[in-house]
Design brief:
Elements (H helix, E strand, L loop, with lengths): L16 E3 L2 E6 L5 E3 H14 L3 E3 L5 E6 L3 H10 L15 E2 L15 H13 L12 E4 L11 E10 L2 E10 L7 E4 L3 H15 L7 H5 L4 H8 L23 E4 L5 E6 L5 E2 L1 H14 L3 E4 L5 E7 L3 H10 L13 E3 L13 H11 L6 E4 L13 E7 L2 E6 L9 E8 H12 L6
Parallel strand pairs: 6-7, 7-8, 16-17, 17-18
Antiparallel strand pairs: 1-2, 2-5, 3-14, 4-5, 4-13, 8-9, 9-10, 11-12, 12-15, 14-15, 18-19, 19-20
Helix pairs in contact: 1-2, 1-7, 3-4, 9-10
Length: 431
C-alpha cells in the first residue's frame, strides 16, 4: 500500500504527526469497534514502538510517544487489519455511530450495514478523498447511548413517522439542532453521497468544512440543489429524544433478553498496554470477542450474559478502569497538556487528577491546555482553560455564547477552582 498522502495536521494510521512527546498515530475504528486480537496488536505496537494509548473523542484510538520506528509500527497495524482499504481513504473514514449500534434497546434500526456501505464509498471513490481530514458524518439510529453534542458536517438521525423509519438530517451541527429535511431509510446512502458531491462542487479549496460553505451559500439554496438529486421529505416538530449521560459507564441491558454491555472508563482517556490486553481478554472470556470505544473516551464490552456482570466489572476494576458514574475522575476530560504538547500551558492530566481528588462529587469538567480544545469536540458544562502552569480561567457553558461559554473567574489554582465548583454543585447547574 502506498503511503503518499496530502499534507494534513491530523494524525492518521499512515501519517505519524510529531508532538512534544513523540509521534502520534491515530487508528480509526469502524463504528468504534475493534476485535480482541486487534486490541492486542495495538497494545503490542504501543509497547514496542510507542508509549501511551489514548481513546479519542471520536471513538478511535491513538498511540503517542512513537520514536524512529514508525514504518514498522504502521506495518504492524496494517497487518492487524486496522488500516484503510486505500491509503488515500484513511483521512475520510470519519463516520460516527452510537457505541451501542445494533444492540441498543431504544434504536429505530441497526445502523451498521448502512455505515459499512457509507465507509466503503468514502474509501473507494477518489473524489471523496479531496475532503478535509476533519470533515465528519454522524449516523444516529435513535439509540439511548449517543453523542449528540459533537458538531458534524452532515448528520442523519432516525425517527418513526406513520410506522416508517425516516432519517432526519442537518448540516454543520448536531441532531439536537433543527433538521433541514428527511429521507426514507433506503435513501440514506444516496443522501450522504449527494451531500458530499454537492459540497465538493460548491466549496472553494479554502472552504474545508460545511460551515465554511454555509457562511457564504444560503442553506435554502444548498437544500434546493440537493432536492434535485434525491427526494427530500419536509419535517416539522421533530426533536431528537434526549439521552442519559451515564450509559457509557457500568452495566446496561441490551435489546436481547439476558444480555448486557459493560462500560469502563480509562482515567482521562489513557490506557497502557496491559489495560488494553486485559480488556481484550475479558471480551474473549465474557463477550463476543470485541470491544467498542466511545466518544466519551471510554470502552464497552458488548454481549455479556447478565449473570457475568459482576465478574466483568471486577475485571475492569482490577485493570484500574473506572466503572462507576459517581467517580469524579470518570467525568473529567483533559488534553495531553504541556507534558506532550508544545502549545499546552499547563500539565492538564496531572491537574485533572488533582481536581478529581478535591471534588466532593462527580462533575463534567474539561481541562484544556490551550484554546484549541483538542480533547473535547463539544462545549462542556464546565471548562478550565490553562493560562499558565497550574492556573486556569473558569468558564460555564452558555448556549447564548460561543466558545467555552461565560467566563466566571480568571487565573485560578486547581484548589480555588475545586472550591468554586464544589460550592456551585450545591446549587442547580448543568453539570
Amino acid at each position: 500500500m502506498s503511503t503518499a498522502l496530502r499534507p494534513s495536521a491530523c494524525p492518521g494510521l499512515l501519517r505519524i504527526v510529531q508532538a512534544l512527546d513523540g509521534g502520534i498515530c491515530r487508528i480509526k475504528l469502524n463504528g468504534g469497534s475493534i476485535s480482541a486480537d486487534q486490541a492486542d496488536a495495538v497494545a503490542d505496537a504501543a509497547e514496542q514502538f510507542g508509549g501511551a494509548i489514548e481513546a479519542t473523542n471520536r471513538a478511535n484510538l491513538q498511540i503517542r510517544g512513537i520514536g524512529q520506528q514508525s514504518a514498522a509500527l504502521i506495518e504492524r497495524l496494517l497487518a492487524a487489519g486496522l488500516g484503510p482499504r486505500t491509503a488515500a481513504g484513511d483521512d475520510v473514514r470519519n463516520l460516527m455511530l452510537s457505541p451501542t449500534a445494533g444492540i441498543d434497546r431504544q434504536m429505530h434500526f441497526d445502523t451498521r450495514p448502512l455505515a459499512e456501505q457509507i465507509l466503503d464509498t468514502l474509501q473507494s471513490h477518489p473524489r471523496f478523498h479531496e475532503l478535509s481530514a476533519k470533515f465528519a458524518v454522524l449516523l444516529d439510529g435513535g439509540e439511548a447511548l449517543a453523542m449528540l453534542e459533537h458538531p458534524h458536517d452532515l448528520w442523519l438521525s432516525a425517527f418513526e413517522r406513520d410506522g416508517e423509519t425516516i432519517l432526519a438530517f442537518g448540516l454543520a451541527g448536531c441532531p439536537t439542532d433543527r433538521g433541514v429535511g428527511a429521507v426514507a431509510l433506503e435513501h440514506g446512502h444516496a443522501l450522504v453521497v449527494a451531500v458530499l458531491e454537492l459540497f465538493l462542487e460548491s466549496a472553494r479549496p479554502e472552504q474545508t468544512r460545511m460551515r465554511h460553505l454555509l457562511d457564504e451559500l444560503p442553506l435554502s439554496a444548498f437544500i434546493e440543489q440537493l432536492s434535485t438529486r434525491l427526494p427530500i421529505k419536509p419535517i416539522s416538530h421533530w426533536q431528537r429524544a434526549a439521552v442519559a449521560d451515564d450509559l457509557h459507564i457500568g452495566a446496561h441491558p441490551q435489546n436481547t433478553s439476558g444480555r448486557v454491555y459493560v462500560g469502563a472508563v480509562p482515567a482521562l482517556g489513557r490506557l497502557d498496554p496491559a489495560m488494553l490486553r486485559g480488556a481484550a481478554q475479558l471480551a474473549r472470556q465474557f463477550g463476543n470477542g470485541s470491544l467498542r470505544f466511545t466518544p466519551w473516551q471510554s470502552l464497552l464490552l458488548p454481549d455479556v450474559n447478565a449473570g457475568d456482570t459482576v465478574q466483568v466489572l471486577e475485571g475492569f476494576q482490577r485493570l484500574n478502569l473506572l466503572t462507576r458514574a459517581g467517580d469524579p475522575l470518570a467525568r473529567l476530560i483533559a488534553c495531553t497538556g504541556s507534558k506532550g504538547c508544545g502549545k499546552g500551558l499547563a500539565d492538564t492530566k496531572q491537574d485533572a487528577r488533582h481536581l478529581a481528588a478535591l471534588l466532593p462529587s462527580a462533575l463534567n469538567v474539561h481541562l484544556s491546555g490551550c484554546s484549541r480544545s483538542c480533547a473535547a469536540a463539544h462545549c462542556a458544562p464546565v471548562t478550565l482553560l490553562a493560562v499558565s502552569p497550574g492556573h486556569y480561567d473558569l468558564y460555564f457553558r452558555d448556549a447564548t455564547l460561543p466558545g467555552f461559554g461565560a467566563l466566571h473567574a480568571r487565573n485560578l489554582t486547581i484548589e480555588a477552582a475545586a472550591t468554586l465548583l464544589a460550592a456551585r454543585s450545591r446549587s442547580p447547574i448543568d453539570a
